[in-house]
Amino acid sequence: MFELRKFVVPEFIFGVGARHKVGLYARNLNAKRVLVVTDPGVIAAGWLAELTSDLDEAGISHVLFSQVTPNPRDHEVMAGAEFYRAAGCDVIVALGGGSVIDCAKGISVVIANGGDILDYEGVDAIPLPGPPLICIPTTAGPAADISQFAIINAVSRRTKVAIISKIVVPDVALVDPQTTVTMSPSLTAFSGLDALTHAIEAYVSSASSPLSDVHALAAVRSVRANLRQAVALPDDLQAREQMMLASLQAGMAFSNASLGATHAMAHSLGGYLDLAHGECNALLLPAVVDFNFHASEDRFIQIGEAMGLEMKQGTPQEKLRRIMDDIHDLRAAVGVEGGLAERGVSRAVVADLADHALNDSCIYTNPRRVTASDLRGIYAEAL
Fold this sequence. Notes:
globular; alpha/beta; 9 strands; about 50% helix; 3-stranded mixed β-sheet
């Protein structure tokens, strides 16, 4: 029997040229003065100049907030909200990767609800919807442009917090693969492995459903087939398009099925050491698959089949090894080498990382119940 399930996605336009619809959608939202949220890297890539030209052509006033860093800080969100108020804005446009979009979501939450952005940590803790939000992603992987998640770095606590609510789902996402051609090979790799992690964790999540499953498996297939090409040939627009589609599908899956231990641990790790989120996921994923496999064996076998692996023959342990080896091979092929130790993680911090991860909202839908001791073991395996 099909259980009742909610499935939330924003309106989105997908395809080359979608980004140029920003003026039309801002007008449809009755925008008078737009806050554009972006970062220095996106500005340097030339995408901001295009965006402001499109807004000018539509006759819409705009101001710029670009003080956003990777792993957006709580104080950056608060500064952006103050800037929005002072400038008299009424609509937000986020142009960038997951960090920019999450910061823009946080600004929207604070504008409508007041207080500090960290007041809204957890699930469904936001009372009021914020101003309209248009997202134009420039990376293929995070899927912040369509998700119910916003991840903010709580600086004083040295961890990241998950804010999960349909209120942070953007009003519209303009998903244009062409914006990803300026991604560096390393960012392409980390973002693509982030999408793979989203898809795998959504598929084995305790909150998965047929509605999320179809998108999760499609994303696994697409990342497996296209990530190497996107990293090796950055101008291959077909590979870029397929990776952006994988990001979109994985985003629809995890936004509605939630995630698991990989993300809970990555949030802790990224906040503690300020590492890139996709890199954290890539380094942790094999160890978490190893931990979870026997709790959801049939589903992991289906993931292995979506990866193109032989999963009909062999013992369960041999099938697990094939999946883990394939993830390791994909990581190596796109330039992600080594483990956590090479990134400065020592056994001395593992206990603190595990304690933070155990309190992350993503841990609750992991397919296997997790203890702090389990998390310490997984971190140690990933060293």
